[in-house]
Amino acid sequence: VRFEWSDKCEESFNELKTRLTIALVLALSDDSGNFVIYNDASQQGLGCVPMQHGR
């Protein structure tokens, strides 16, 4: 399959970057609460996100 990066792809990617950097997606942790760790791994990378209920 041939990969093509069109003007529409570039526009969508820039919109996504803008929304992710403007939205409040980070919060301070509350040490009195429990954490849930979500992780994922593949041959290409590794990701991990600690989350708290209601945060």
Automatic annotation (TrEMBL):
Instruction: Check the UniProt entry and state the signal peptide residues, or none.
Output: none
Record-linked InterPro entries: DNA/RNA_pol_sf, Rev_trsase/Diguanyl_cyclase, RT_RNaseH_2
List each copy of the Reverse transcriptase/retrotransposon-derived protein RNase H-like domain by range.
5-54
Q: Which domain of life is it from?
A: Eukaryota
Cross-referenced SUPFAM superfamilies: DNA/RNA polymerases
Q: Please give the name of this protein.
A: PREDICTED: retrotransposon
